[in-house]
Structure formats: C-alpha cells, structure tokens
Amino acid sequence: MAQLDKTFPTMDCSICILAPKMIECYRHPNITIHTQSEVVGLDGAVGDFNIKVLEHPRSVDSKKCTGCGLCSEKCPVKKPSAFQAGLGQRKAIYLAFPQAVPLIATIDRDACLWFTKGVCKTCEKVCSAKAVDYEQKENVIELNVSSVIAATGFEQYNPKDIGEYGYGRYKNVLTALEFERLVCASGPTGGVLNRPSDGKVSHNIAFIQCVGSRTQTTGYPYCSASCCMYATKEAVLIKEHEPNSHVTIFYMDLRTFGKGFQGFVDRAQSHWGVKYIRGRPGEIRENPTTKDLTILYENTEVGKVEKMVVDLVVLCTAAVPHRDNRKLGGVLGVKLDEFGFFEDKDMLSAPVESSKPGVYFCGSCHGPRDIPESVAEASATAAKASEDAVRWEVKQ
Amino acid sequence: MAPRIGVFVCRCGTNIGAYVDVPKVVEYATTLPGVAYAEENMYTCSSDGLNKINEAIKKHSLERVVVASCTPRTHEPLFQATCEEAGVNKYLFEMANIRDQCSWVHMKEPEKATEKAKDLVRMAVAKAALLEPGDEPEIDVNPSTLVIGGGVAGMRAALSLAEQGFTVTIVEKQKQLGGMLRTFDTLFPFNQKASDVLDPLVKQVTSNPRIRVLTGSKLSSVYGFIGNFDIGVDTAGQEEKFNVGTIIVAVGADALEPKGLYHYGEDPRIVTQVQLEGFVKAGRVDAKRIVMIQCAGARIEERPYCSRICCNEALKNALNVAALGKEVYVLYRDLQTYGIHYSKLEQETKRKGVRFLKYQAEKPPRVTPEDDGLHINFYSPTVNEEMALKADLLVLSTPLIPVSDAKELSQMLKVPLDSNGFFMEAHVKLRPIDFATDGIFVCGTAHSPKDIGESVAQALGVASRASIPMAKKRVRTAAIMSQVDQTRCSGCGTCIDVCPYNALRKNEKGLAETIAAVCKGCGVCGATCPEKAITMHHFTDEQIQAQGLAALEED
Q1: What pTM did the predictor assign?
Q2: Residue B552 forms part of a structural domain
Q3: Mapped to the 3 state alphabet, what secondary structure does B479-546 carry?
Q4: pLDDT in tens, A239-285
Q5: Are residues B194 and B246 in the same domain?
Q6: pLDDT tens for residues A333-359?
Q7: Which residues of chain B have pLDDT under 50?
Q8: B471-510: pLDDT as tens digits
Q9: Bridge-partner residues for B187, per DSSP?
Q10: Residues B286, B182 within the same domain
Q11: Residues of chain A with pLDDT > 90: what percent?
C-alpha cells in the first residue's frame, strides 16, 4: 500500500493514510515489530504456540541508526529500487522509503562493495551514530503466543511471458504498480507522466485488464477483484494530471461490486471522460523509431479488428499468491489452495480461519481482495485471537 | 508572557516541496510573533520528523507546536501524540494544510502557492498563541453490547463478544433469528443448504448464557454515549430499558421487489431469483427454457450501485435448474464473479451449458408476455445485432436495498446513511466498520450488499472493534466540546434543537448544559446561540478571530 499513489474509490492519498497507522503500530506499548524477519518454526497448539523468528541481518544496528540517510547519500552503488517498482534507483545501503517504519538503514549484501569486493566502507565512515555493523549475524528469536495471524499479502503476476504485449521488450509497456510510481509525486518522475523510452509526457494512455488472469494459459483463471477499480483510479489520476489526455480501458467485465465502485466508474466516464472498451486486445506492436505503441483489438460494436496508437500501455496483471506461501504454509501447518493462496477453513462460516485452530488469515494472502475488506478482516482476526487469549486465560 | 511557538514545515518529498518554497516559508515563520523556532522536514510524519519535533520542544522550550503539512484528518492525532510525549498538551497543537490548500491547488503557480502557505502559517501561529490545554474526560464503559439485528452478521458478532467475556443483547424485529438467510434454500458458491449454516448458529446463540435474544422487538430509544447507552426496546407493546457500553448495527438489507420491471407482478411466469429457488426446493420448475435478467433495478440512475451478490445468486440457481435439464440463458451487463470462488462458479456454470448473453444498460431487454411464451428482445453488443428469445420462465435478479426502517434507525442512533441509503462507515479504508460516533459499529449488508463470508468477517471485525473500549473498561473523549456559560444562557433551547448528537440538555434550572462525553465539538450550538453563551473549546471566538485577523494582515 505504501507504493500506491491514491486509493479507490475515495482517492485518499495512500501513504497519508498508511503512515500514521504504521507509526501508531510502532508506538503501541503492546506491539513489538520484528522487521527483516520471517517465521521459521511453529510448534504447540492454540493458546500455547512456540514460534521461531529468524531475523535477517541489516548490517546496521537498529538501536543506533537514526535514519538520517547520509550513508545512503554517500554510497557509490546503485541498484533498482523495489519500492519504486524498478523505475528508480536506490543505493546498496538504503532506507526502504522515507516513511518506512522503523526508519533504519539496511545494507543489501549482494550489492555492497564491502561484502562483494572487500572495499569501500564509506557508510561506516560517514555514519555519525556509528550504526553500521558489517559483522551483524542473523538471529533467531523465540516467542510464545496464543494465536497466529498471517497477513502476508500477495504479488503481481509478471507479464513478461505474455509475448504479444511486449512487456520487458517495449519500454513504454508498464505494469499497474510501475504506473503507480510514475504517477506518484514521491515517485522517480515526481508524478510527471514521463514515459520510459524518451521522457515524453504521455497524453494517450491505454489500460489492459485481466492480464494473466481469467485465462487458463497462465494458471491464474480467477478474477483478481481489484484491477477494474485501480485501473479506473489510475485513469482518473491521469486526467487530473493532464486533463487533455486520452485514456482508454480495455476490459472484459467491469467489476464494480464494492461500495461506491459503480459511482466511481460512472464519474470516471461522465466527468473525466475515461473511455471503456470491452475486449481483450490481441497484440501490442511498437514503432521502432518513435516507440509509440499500436494496440490491436476487436471492436465488437462494428465487428472488426481496429488499431489504436498510444504513448503508454499499462497492464493490469493478475494478483498471484506470494512466492513464500508454500514455505510459510509448511511452517504454520496450514493448507494452500490449488493456486497457492492460503485456504480458508470455510469460506462462508469461517472466513478468516485456517485449517489449524489458532491460525488465522486476513488480507490478500488468502485470495485477492481490496483494502476495506482486508481491514475489516484484520479486525475479524483480532477478534478470533482475542477469543483464544480469553479462553487461555480462563484455563490458567 | 506569550507562549513559545515552534513551527515545522513539511516538504512531503516533492508533494509540497516542488511547488511551495519551503525554506522561504520557514524563514518567514521565524519572523512571526511568538515563534521561537522553525524548521523544515522532508517528511514531518516520518519517525525522523517526529523525533525532530520531540527534540525541538525540549531544546527550545516550546509551549505550542504548529505543523504546516497535509490534512489534520489523517495526521493530527500523530502529531498530537508526539507533542504529548514531549510534554506539550495535545490541544496546544495546530496544523496548517499547505499541501491540499497550496501545493495541490496551485500546482501551476508556485509563487502564489508559497504566499498562501505563508498566510496559512501566519494564521495557524496566531491561533496557536491563544490555544489552551484541554482535559479529556474519562468515562466508564459498561462491558455489554446491543446488537441490532439477528441475522448471520448479528449472531456471529454476538457469539464472538460472548466468547470474549462480554454480555450481549440481540434485538431482532422478526419473530425468529436468521434474517435473510431464512429466505434461501441453498447458498452460493458451494450450493450447501442454508439451514446447515443457520441452524447450528441459532442453537449456539440461544444456548449461550451471555447472550440474551429479544425477538419480535424493536429499538424504541437510544440516549447516551460510548460506554453508557440507555436503550429502550419495545416488544409487543412492552417497553424495556437497559444500559449497554457499545452498539452494533447488523440490520441487514431487503431484497428489491421488482414491481413494474419487465412486467413483474403481471404474469406468473415472471419471478425473482428467490421465488425460483422456492420452485427448485419444491421440485416444480415448470419450464423448459429459463431466461434470467441481471441488474433488474440495479446499476440504473435511480439505484446506481451494483448489488454484488446477484450474479452469483443467479449462477447458483442457473446451475441448479440446469441440473434439472433446463435450458438457461443469463442476460447480463457485467458478470460480477470476482475472486477465486466466484470465478470457479462462473467456469462451472459455463461448463454445464448455461449460456451468457450481454446486454447494454442503455438498451435493456424488452419483455412481451404472450400465450406461447415470454418474448424477450434485446440488442447484443457482442454480435452487434438485435436478438430474440422465447422463455417459459423469466427470472429477475434484483438488488439488495436498505431496510425500510434504516432512516428511522439512523436518526435514532445519530449515524449517517450513504447516498444509496445504506449505513455509512467513518472512513472507507481506515475505519470500514466503525461509525464516526464512538462506540457504534456496523457490519453485514446494513453496510452494503455482500455475501455471507464477507458479512461474517465484518461481524467478527465489529466484535473486535467493540471489545476494545470494553476491555479497556474506561475511555477518554475529546476535549473539543462546547461549554455553556450559565450566567448568559437564557434557556431558549435553540442549541438543544440544533445539536445533531443529542449532546445538550436542560439542567434543573432550565438552562442548557453540555454532556461532555456526547459532544463531538461540531460547533453548531456555539454558532446558533443568540446570547453568545456557548464557548467551543479549541475553537473559541478569540482564537478564530485571531486567525481571521491574521489572514487579513499584509506580510
């Protein structure tokens, strides 16, 4: 959510509603946050789980680092920034993003010159807090808890395998997450819609829905539930930034099933002039000189294949299970569905429970869903965990 | 002596910094009366920025803090908490919104944006100088909950709260528990019997010693505030009063009766999905060919929302009648088979031979009942031509609509409805199941159409939300409230009439007084009072006047 610019259907600034929540968590006396950490062991049962948490080394002492960012500024190594969805760069020692909680630098050991070549140590020299610690080791912590909540989220399908859309070959074909960074004021272009090939401000942009989803060929035949709405949001953002631009959304079914969704799409059409065309484009071709893109699609209203030339194409890709689900599922001893999402005990009667008592799911780790649903589910898991804690207390 | 004011101007990365000349605003702030310290931050809300506020308060002995950044709606509590940590009362904090009101709206004119930012900072500083510390009243919370509505959502919320040790009263207007679930035979997407979900749930609820169930009952009055609501319930003319700490609205929704749509009500061959389900259950579906029309009365001007569940309900019924050897056509606009399970349901329905035909909102199907069948004509955008179908049975998929007494209930509870008449949450994302009024929560289809699993998730969610103040046993309420000057009040009662929260009452002398725990600090009473007897703490006349005068000053 930190990577998103705005959120549908209210257009709240994403980081502005997220950052206070993260800090509230961080400061809460009953909450301890372990970052750069993963759960690697679990035994016991509901009411009395013993958990092993593996803390990966940051190579920075979290108690000393003030998050000033000087180390990052002076570090000579540049790497693509995951936070900027690869559109921007970060250093080998870096802060994940400015509002990150906790705001502590991390060394990417695969990129750092000290770890790879045994030279440099610039960060150590410039750090006035003496927080850099190249010797830091991984650490295993043991916790005893009465219940476990998995809220590990999802990933986006990488559309490089869909050759006909040219992602990875055509610079001006982006994924929706990349576009979020492009349109965001804290993104690499400061929110100006400079397209990657030549920096030209894009005025003609098309979205393609259901990329990699609702098709048997990729193995993700399901609907990803939020793409129709985030595409609409991104389309409206383009119109806000560049009112004279043309925005087209190619869709299969317009899924406006959530609260306020239909009204949002209606406004995108009537007020902002976003154009919706039903159909899945067959192919994108790149003009080798201008790098403009030609979309070939079937116009069902006239029954023939038509072409549309645009500056930029945004692919709205399938929400897919997190790659670590299988491993984590194994540790927690819970079932996965055929795609790799965590499987609910009972979708209707036990929508946040796993097959194992005391282990719960919320958010997109058990299937694609939007933010309000994830937040409501988060409270639901809190209720289940509270029930467990009360039962445990009574037993003591 | 004038208090020492600190000003923190946020760049918000480039969000503000690229348009407003932040160093200039900081420099300007230092020239303002009372300002002892000013600085800029890349992100004032980051933990680094908050530490800097904390340090500056201590280092420069600041007594008032002004942050010029984004909106108080999202960030004020965070900055206030930081002030408190550094020993400055949270009501001695003031915010200037130079993002929304300067950099965003004056993106193309950075100089004017900077000038306006200076104006807003000057105004905030002028007000900050006059701020007074506030004490938040602490109130006891009765560890019991009223759940309005005994459907699946209300029952699940009640059970979870009971499990957590709280007592619950469910008020259900029907004669029995169950709500809308009672109208269904089977449930999508797995076609399991509704009774398999409902019956054990009712048994659990009615046998739980911490849950009291009042059926055939109606809420008649609600007074009070979080922790201490006085409830009146009417059961067959008998009025009962009791007190609870929290309230959950789980009143569900109604199904639209499609009167006047597609000749519904004029021909027995035209029915709703619920009626079709009744035929399936009774084993008499007297039709060879069945046509379903989706969005009957939904996603239209009069009722612009999508009702979320109707497509999946139709698919479930389509599968069930297809299994009886019927030919089924579904006329739809956009199929709402979202997520994993409904995608599977769609695929299964297509495999079983149910045919899907798209129609357009602007050209809805035309139905002509004839003796030989129901003639259905529509324009297909897929093949770009008019199509005709003849059906033996036409099934309308109608949306869920707000319950008929939603408005009455919303007025009694002083909670809002959205433009479609469903109950409106405090914040779509941050507080999706809270009301803005403390201690009152919403779940299930009262909030918006949703399936059973989603209703249950929200029900458990509100059980958690409601448990928080009850587990803490005491809550603090905001000190931003009105206060009536008893020497000036004439007892006219105007403030009592205009207060949207029932937060004022007449005392034994016939004069108005504020119920601190109920007051939300909206200020309507203060603005209305003809005697100027009402002070709005944190928004006093002096403070607002100072702000206004500062706005008119030249710099």
Answers
A1: 0.93
A2: no
A3: CCCEEECCCCCCCCCHHHHHCCCCCEEECCCCCEEECCCCCCCCCHHHHHCCCCCEEECCCCHHHHHH
A4: 999 999 999 999 999 999 999 999 999 999 999 999 999 989 999 99
A5: yes
A6: 999 999 999 999 999 999 999 999 999
A7: none
A8: 999 998 888 899 999 999 999 999 999 998 889 999 999 9
A9: B192
A10: no
A11: 91
Output the pLDDT for position B13.
Answer: 81
Nearest chain A Cα distance for residue B534, angstroms: 34
Q: Check CB contact of B74 with chain A, cutoff 8 Å.
A: yes
User: CB distance B340–A256 less than 8 Å?
Assistant: no
Identify the CATH number of the domain in which residue B413 sits: 3.50.50.60
Residue A219 near residue A339 (C-beta atoms within 8 A): yes
Which structure tokens are listed for B551?
């706005």
Q: CB–CB of B192 and A258 under 8 A? A: no
Looking at the fold, whether B107 and B31 belong to one and the same domain comes out as: yes
Please indicate whether, in this complex, the C-beta atoms of A379 and B13 are within 8 angstroms of each other: no
Mean predicted confidence (pLDDT) in A170-180: 98
Cis peptide before B500 (omega within 30 of 0): no
Q: Do residue B90 and residue B214 come from a single domain?
A: no
Reported as type and span, the H/E element at residue A46 is none
Residue B232: what pLDDT? Answer: 98
CB-nearest partner of A257 from B18, B201, B338: B338
pLDDT recorded at residue A98: 86
Residue A39 distance to chain B (closest CA, Å): 25
Residues B317 and B233 in one domain: no
Give the tokens for residue B259.
Answer: 């009167």
Backbone φ and ψ for B288, nearest 5 degrees, come out as -95, -45
Look at residue A303 in the predicted model and tell me its pLDDT.
75
Helix (H) or strand (E) holding B550: helix B541-552
Q: For B327-384, what is each residue's pLDDT tens digit?
A: 999 999 999 999 999 999 999 999 999 999 999 999 999 999 999 999 999 999 988 8
Does residue B265 lie in a domain region? yes
Q: Are A355 and A366 in contact (CB under 8 A)?
A: no
pLDDT number for residue B555? 59
Start-end ranges of CATH 3.50.50.60 in chain A?
154-319
Mutate to test the interface with B, among A241, A257, A265, A270 (most CBs of B within 10 A): A257
Contact check, Cβ <8 Å, A376/B14: no
Residues B293 and B271 grouped into a single domain: yes
Provide DSSP, A92-116: SEE-SSTT-SS---EE-TTT-HHHH
B418 with A259: Cβ contact below 8 A: yes
* Residues A192-235 pLDDT 10s: 999 999 999 999 999 999 999 999 899 999 999 999 999 999 99
Give the residue from A304, A305, A281 showing the smallest Cα distance to A293: A281
Q: Where residue B103 sits, what CATH number does that domain have?
A: 3.40.50
At residue B131, what is the residue type? L
**Helix (H, G, I), strand (E, B), or coil: what is residue A278?**
strand
> Which residue, among B197, B173, B174, B176, has the nearest Cα to B185 in the 3D structure?
B197
Q: Of B457, B475, B493, which marks where a domain is finished?
A: B475
Domain that holds residue B129: 5-134
In a domain, B118, yes or no: yes
Domain boundary among B113, B134, B155: B134
DSSP H or E segment with residue A250: strand A246-251
Is B549 within a domain?
Answer: no
What SS3 class is residue B26? Answer: helix
Which chain A residue has the Cα nearest residue B308?
A257
Q: What DSSP state is assigned to residue B101? A: I
Residue B55 backbone dihedrals phi, psi, to 5 degrees: -65, -45
- Do B408 and B391 share a structural domain? no
Class of domain A154-319: alpha beta
Count structural domains, chain B: 4
Chain A touched by B23 (CB under 8 Å): no
Q: Is B164 in contact with A16 (Cβ distance < 8 A)?
A: no
Are A169 and A175 spatial neighbours (Cβ–Cβ below 8 Å)? no
Q: Is A380 within 8 Å of B460 when comparing Cβ atoms?
A: yes
